[in-house]
Amino acid sequence: MKTVLQTLLLLGFISMNSQNYTLTDYNWTIEKIVTDEETLLADQEENFYDILYLQNSEINDENLNYVFSACDGQLEIIQSAQSFDLLLWGCAITPEHSDIALFFYNVYLSDESNEVNTDEGQVYGTFTYDFREENEIIYLDITNPVGSVATFSATTLSNENFNESQFAIYPNPVANELHIETDQAKIERIEIYTIGGKKVLDVNFLNDQPIDVSKLIRGLYLVKVETGNGSLTKKLVKK
Predict the structure, then answer these.
(1) pTM for this structure?
(2) Most CB within 10 Å of its CB: which of 28, 90, 197, 217?
(3) Nearest 5°: phi and psi at 145?
(4) CA 154 to CA 27: how far, in whole Å?
(5) Who's near 159: CB < 8 A, 6+ residues apart?
(6) What is the CATH topology of the domain spanning 164-238?
(7) Which CATH number is 2-154 given?
(8) Percent of the chain scored above 70 by pLDDT?
(9) Distances (CA, A) of 214 to 178, 211, 226
(10) Residue 146 has pLDDT above 50, yes or no
C-alpha cells in the first residue's frame, strides 16, 4: 500500500510540474536526439533554423501548426495523454537542413514512427512529450514510438519576464516597410532569416526606424528581435 501511495504522489508531482508549461509557451531549439544506437547533438553554431515554432491552428482547437527547419505541418494534440500525432507536413522544394534536422525527419520521424495513410494524407505517431527544468532552462523531451527521444530547450524568456504580446510587428504580411515597436524593452538588433536558416537582413535598430524589406522575395521569414532583456522570434510573411 505504501508503494502505491508513493507512486501516486510521484505521478501527481510530475503532472503538476508538466502543467506549468504548454507547447506554445516557447519556441524550442533542438539539442539532441538519443536512440538505442547513437546520440546526435545539434551544431550549436548553426542551429538557429533548427527551432521548433508552434502556434494554435485556426482550423481545429486540438491542432497546432508547426515550422521546423524548412518544413511545416500540424500536430494533433491528445491533451489527456500529453501526446500527439504528426500530420499534414511537407518541406520546401530545396530545403536547407542541418545534420540533426535531416536525422529528425529521415530516421526519428520517417523510419522509427508508425505511418498510417488516411484520406487527409500520411499520419505519424504517436509521440509523447514532457517538460523538465534544469538550471532555469526549460526542456521539452519528445519520445517517438520506438523510444528515441528528441530534446529541445526553450529559446525565449518566460512570459512572466518577457511578454511577446507587447511587441508589435506590422504590417504582416508586409510589402515594403516593416515596423517593430515595444514599450517593454529597448530593441537593439533585428535579424531576418529564411525558413531554411539563411540570414537575409541584419539591422542595428533605432527607435521608430522602419525596416526596408522591399528587396525580399515573397515567402515566409523569421524575424529575430534582440533586446536588453532577451530575444524573441516571430514569423513574417513577405507579399
Answers:
(1) 0.63
(2) 28
(3) -60, -25
(4) 6
(5) 25
(6) Immunoglobulin-like (2.60.40)
(7) 2.40.128.270
(8) 79
(9) 9, 9, 22
(10) yes
Whole-number Å distance between alpha carbons of 135 and 127:
26
Dihedral of the CA atoms 210, 68, 131, 8 (nearest 10)? 140
Question: Which residue matches cell numbers 494534440?
Answer: 77
Are 76 and 120 in contact by the 8 Å Cβ rule? The answer is no
Q: For 5-43, what is each residue's pLDDT tens digit?
A: 343 333 443 333 444 678 887 878 888 999 999 999 887
Cell reading at 211: 525596416
pLDDT of residue 12: 41
The answer on pLDDT for 111 being more than 50 is yes
Joined together, the cell numbers standing for residue 88 give 499534414
Q: What local confidence, expressed as pLDDT, does residue 79 receive?
A: 73
Using CA atoms, how far apart are residues 239 and 223, in angstroms rounded to an integer?
Answer: 15
Span(s) in the chain for CATH 2.60.40.3080: 164-238
Stretch(es) of the chain classified as CATH 2.40.128.270: 2-154
Higher pLDDT, 207 or 40: 40
How many other C-beta atoms can be found within 10 angstroms of the C-beta atom of residue 29?
19
First to last CA, the chain: 64
CA distance 130 to 226: 28
Among candidate residues 145, 111, 109, 108, the one with its CA nearest the CA of residue 126: 145
